[in-house]
Amino acid sequence: LTEAIKSSGGVPQKADSLVLIGPPGSGKGTQAARLAARCGFDHINTGAILRQEIAAGSSLGQRVEPYVRAGELIPTELLSGVMAARLRSASHAFLLDGYPRNLAQASALDQTLEELRQTIAGVIALELDDQTAAQRLEGRLVCAAEGHTYHRSLCPPSAEGVCDIDGSQLVARQDDRDLGALRSRLELFRAQTVPVIERYCESGLLMRVEATGSPERVAERLEYTLGASLSRNQPRARISRGSDRGKPGARAQSGTRRWAA
Ligand code: AMP
């Protein structure tokens, strides 16, 4: 996949943009960062954007903090403007990580893409059972500087409490420490985000990837699935909207696919 992108000029184009969806603990952030670095996507991580706003004490940060602490979804009206602005500023293909998480956000994303006359190439759904997800979240540690992720037992840092990459302190995220918030995030995913996955499945954009095992193993599966799907040489998919919504396998003609595994 990366070779194919390199040989086609190195930077994926806007219509190659992807959405990555997965329950908390599925390794979504890790996989998104890795794929973005390997393939040159502009990585847009909603949770990280919100945490930055909170850390900066901005007015948006102050409004969203209680929701993030409780593991609840930020109201769509608070988020859609921020996301639209961020999408507008993307100069090449983006990899959306953590958005959309409900049907209202999926519609807001459709609208923004329509305004930008942009399409997405596909939606990757990471799949993981609740028990493994909870186990991963309970032991998760992130570095204070850049959010690099570790796990107390499954993926410990070389020196306890210190990030291998930038030497900053490792901490457990507030919403991972709180068992109630953790359960509520998993329930929210089932109730609100699974319908988004079903919607993308109906529009023929969905690629499912099993998220068990090591980050390396998941990354291999993800790149294989992505490469296989994108190299079928079908016309490039676009986000479902209007007349084709709900038709299984609906795809639009928008040029020749450049990617191959
Ligand atoms: P994450 O880092 O993806 O686990 O997100 C952390 C928290 O940020 C979530 O528990 C929500 O409170 C908030 N958040 C992130 N993405 C969204 C979204 N698309 N919609 C609403 N809230 C979000």
Topology:
Layout: H1 2-7, E1 18-21, H2 28-39, E2 42-45, H3 46-56, H4 59-70, H5 76-88, E3 94-97, H6 103-115, E4 122-127, H7 130-138, E5 140-143, E6 149-151, E7 170-171, H8 174-177, H9 179-202, E8 206-210, H10 215-230
Parallel strand pairs: 1-3, 1-4, 2-3, 4-8
Antiparallel strand pairs: 5-6, 5-7
Helix pairs in contact: 2-10, 3-4, 5-6, 7-9
Characterization of this structure:
With 261 residues, the protein is α/β, with parallel strands linked by helices. The chain contains ten helices and eight strands. Helix 7 (130-138) packs across helix 9. The longest helix is centred in the last third of the chain and has 24 residues, at 179-202. Residues 233-261 have low confidence and may be disordered. The protein binds adenosine monophosphate. Residues 24, 46-47, 50, 67-68, 71-74, 79, 98-99, 101, 105, 175, 185 line the site of adenosine monophosphate.
